[in-house]
Amino acid sequence: MHRRFRLLTAFLCSSLLAPAAHAGGLKVSLTERSQWPSPLTSPRAFDVASRAEIAAFTEVMADADASTEPPAGDAASLAKWKERMHGVLVENFAKARETCATGALFCEGAVPKDWAALVATSRAGLAKLPADLAPWYAEQKPFYQGYLYELVRLAGLFPKTTSEILPLSPSEKFGLELPDRSFLLTFDDGPTPKGAGGTDAVTSLVRAEGIHAAFFLLGNNYEARRKATSVEQLKALYSGMCVGSHGQEHKSHASWAGAVPGMESFHPKLAESLPEGQTKLTLFRPPYGQRTPEILQVLERGGMKNILWNIDSQDWHASNSGPKAAGRVLSLMLVWRHGNILFHDIHPKAAEALPRIWRDTRGSGVKWVDCHEE
Ligand SMILES: [Zn+2]
Question: Residue 25: what pLDDT?
Fold first, then answer.
């Protein structure tokens, strides 16, 4: 396993040279998370699974730390990201320990207070996993190795290429400010053309579940749909949801000269078709999560907030599928325990993944945050 890990590390280092965060050809890490033997039907069941997923990811991170090959990229950003991630995992494991029953998995000894203690607890727990969890471990460990490479790559590129991996300003929201077990569903790149499914299917599905999700619209797609239908129909399309801006065009807002003029022309138009219940246009998300301090200043002047994410379904990727997008998101919900989840309503995989995510977390104490509270 260690040898394979080193080879993958070498692959990661070379892939750091790739130019764009979402460049085609990059691998994304996927899992169906089909081997966990018990459903997450109570807060305690969610916490047992959460402790196991955090331990598996912690072990993978600790193994990478022990590697003699330092990862390529911006050393200061990598160090900052690693410290942030260690803190998230220590804090989340402590939350997941709150429902520990005597003799339960990963409940032995004191609650780990720092990274070294979490690594020791994780390794000790994984070393004596019950036999029925061996298939789960075999499925999830490679997933976390791949997931770690995704994160390390983005951290190494920062701040030359900004992304959701680290904040540029404390005003930006990633979902980490939400309470434990609370998640905001977000969808980018719509709306799809009238009659094409996509946005219509996803908004109907989310509405039927009683959830108020945030949709980040692209100016070009918005204008095409508005031309083909009407302002009234756009309001109805997003009824119960919140609409935000994803910029005029799907280009990096860190390098595209048209970014600010595009926002200035698109935002007043978008503000004319806000669904009932939403009084102002306040939410923004840059394509690829790429932005500059100047973009943040423009948002602040307009009374808008930059809404990023910490849980990426990677549903846009050709190798992904509905079941794999669901498995990836469920795994990351158990690791992160709160946050903003990124899907795309222009791809059919969101509509395939969401019903399983809702079904598998029913009764677990998971709360779907109302976008109007953002
Ligand atoms: Zn996008």
Answer: 57
**Distance in angstroms (rounded) separating the CA atoms of residues 269 and 289:** 23
Compute how many other C-beta atoms are within 10 angstroms of the C-beta atom of residue 82.
18
Domain presence at residue 313: yes
Q: What type of residue sits at position 256? A: W
Residue 174 lies in a domain: no
Distance from residue 208's CA to the centre of ligand 1 (Å): 25
Alpha carbons 203 and 210: distance in angstroms, whole number: 11
Residue 365: other Cβ atoms inside 10 A: 16
Q: Would 359 be classed as within a structural domain?
A: yes
Predicted confidence band of residue 2 (pLDDT cuts 50, 70, 90): very low
- Rounded distance between C-alpha atoms, residue 313 and residue 347, angstroms: 11
- Please report whether residue 77 resides in a domain: yes
92: pLDDT confidence band, cut at 50, 70 and 90?
A: very high
CA distances from 230 to 235, 279, 324 (A): 9, 19, 36
Residues with CB under 5 A from ligand 1 (ion): 188-189, 287
DSSP 29: -
Torsion angles phi and psi, residue 346, rounded to 5: -85, -10
Query: Distance, CA 374 to ligand 1 centroid (Å)?
Result: 20
Domain boundary among 109, 124, 157: 157
Q: Note the pLDDT tens digit of each residue in 169-192.
A: 999 999 999 999 999 999 999 999
What domain range is 224 assigned to? 182-373
Q: How far apart are CA 135 and CA 85, in angstroms?
A: 26
Q: What's the pLDDT tens digit per position in 20-71?
A: 344 445 889 999 999 999 999 999 999 999 999 999 999 999 999 998 888 8
Q: How does pLDDT run across 280-339, given as a tens digit for each residue?
A: 999 999 999 999 999 999 999 999 999 999 999 999 999 999 999 999 999 999 999 999
Same domain (yes/no): 210, 291: yes
Ligand 1: distance of its center to the CA of 370 in Å?
Answer: 21
